[in-house]
Amino acid sequence: MARRHLRRRTDEHGTDPDGPGGGHGSGPYGLGPHGPGGHGGDPYAAPQAAPAIELRGVRRTYGRGEGTVQALRGIDLALARGSFTAVMGPSGSGKSTFLQCAAGLDRPDAGEIRLGGEEITALSENRLTELRRSRIGFVFQSFNLLPSLSVEQNVLLPQRLAGERQDRARARDLLERVGLGQHARRRPGHLSGGQQQRVAIARALITRPDVVFADEPTGALDTRTAHEVLGLLRQAVDSLGATVVMVTHDPVAASFADRALFLAGGAIVDDLPHPSPQTVADRMVALTARPVGAAA
Ligand SMILES: Nc1ncnc2c1ncn2[C@@H]1O[C@H](COP(=O)(O)OP(=O)(O)OP(=O)(O)O)[C@@H](O)[C@H]1O
Ligand SMILES: [Mg+2]
């Protein structure tokens, strides 16, 4: 029952047809009087929201001397709120490094990353941890639920860790949205893989994060279950105004996104709007035929 037809394109930066989607706009990262956006024009127009996430000249190098690997070679990218982006590329192209840097789990060697308008690259480790807990959602291939907590407690965990009030009504609502309203009191171990991933999606959304990062979220699921999970990520974007960045190897998964970015040799070499499984597969074939590191 994949709901692929609920798409609503939100390619234009800052457009937000429903106003502050799910409570985003008025959050703690609201814009100052000189809010970015830079569209000029009508001085009475509502200020443009900052991109959910923005990377400028982001570089990450591993190792030294002979063994140096340039995992990211200068990534420039801005993702609008309420957008769904797939990140693709051959093995070793830098997808995980990109995700880790963008999510504040790793620090770039150069460049800037802004989350909801706030520069995060210079933050202290403690501040970065706080920020990850409250302003970033994660969905992993392996679900990463805590087996000793109930489904609802798992969903509430980010708020608990962030020291925020645990919003049980929101947890219940999110569990309803992902079709698990009946299972709030169960343990994750009693759920199927697809159900566990749906819990993880609810958990990723509980704090109304600036960005949800999903790393191969369907890698451990069968095709039908994968479609359900992708449909839920799509719905989180369309009906809750979430911003999703998903690393995937699967062209069908990428086709749920508004946009597919292709990495090769640590650089963005392609940017495909409205990806279809076929167009994505064609790009991937072209990329893997090209020597890694060659420019687009
Ligand atoms: N901790 C590390 N130390 C040294 N090199 C690393 C490290 N992590 C990644 N690399 C190198 O950086 C490059 C990018 O790796 P990355 O894991 O980001 O690729 P990927 O696109 O996620 O690949 P895959 O599809 O296989 O997961 C690769 O050449 C990899 O070998
Ligand atoms: Mg990887």
Question: Describe it for me?
Answer:
It is built from 8 helices and 10 strands. The strands form 2 sheets. Strands 6-7-8-3-9-10 form a 6-stranded mixed β-sheet, with helices on both faces. A 4-stranded antiparallel β-sheet has the order 2-1-4-5, covered by helices on one side. It is globular. The N terminus is likely disordered. The site of magnesium ion (MG) has 2 residues, from helix 1.
- Computed over alpha carbons, the radius of gyration is 19 Å
What is the makeup of the main sheet? 6 strands, mixed
Which H/E pattern describes the elements?
EEEHEEHEHHHEHEHEEH
Tally of separate helices: 8
What is the fold-level CATH name, i.e. the topology?
A: Rossmann fold
Q: Number of folding domains?
A: 1
* Helix fraction bin: 25-40%
Instruction: Supply the CATH architecture.
Output: 3-Layer(aba) Sandwich
- State the low-pLDDT regions, or none: 1-41
Estimate the strand proportion: 15-25%
Number of strands: 10
- C-alpha termini separation: 37 Å
Spatial shape: globular
Bound molecules: adenosine-5'-triphosphate, magnesium ion
**CATH class bucket:** Alpha Beta
Strand order of the largest sheet: 6-7-8-3-9-10
Give the CATH H-level superfamily: P-loop containing nucleotide triphosphate hydrolases
Mean pLDDT across every amino acid position: 85
- SSE class: alpha/beta
Give a quick rundown of the structure.
With 296 residues, this protein is of the alpha/beta class.
Write the layout of secondary structure elements.
Layout (H helix, E strand, L loop, with lengths): L52 E10 L6 E11 L4 E5 L6 H8 L7 E6 L2 E2 L5 H11 E5 L10 H11 L6 H10 L15 H13 L5 E5 L7 H18 L3 E4 L3 H4 L4 E6 L2 E7 L3 H13 L7
Parallel strand pairs: 3-8, 3-9, 6-7, 7-8
Antiparallel strand pairs: 1-2, 1-4, 4-5, 9-10
Helix pairs in contact: 3-5, 4-5, 5-6
The structure holds adenosine-5'-triphosphate and magnesium ion.
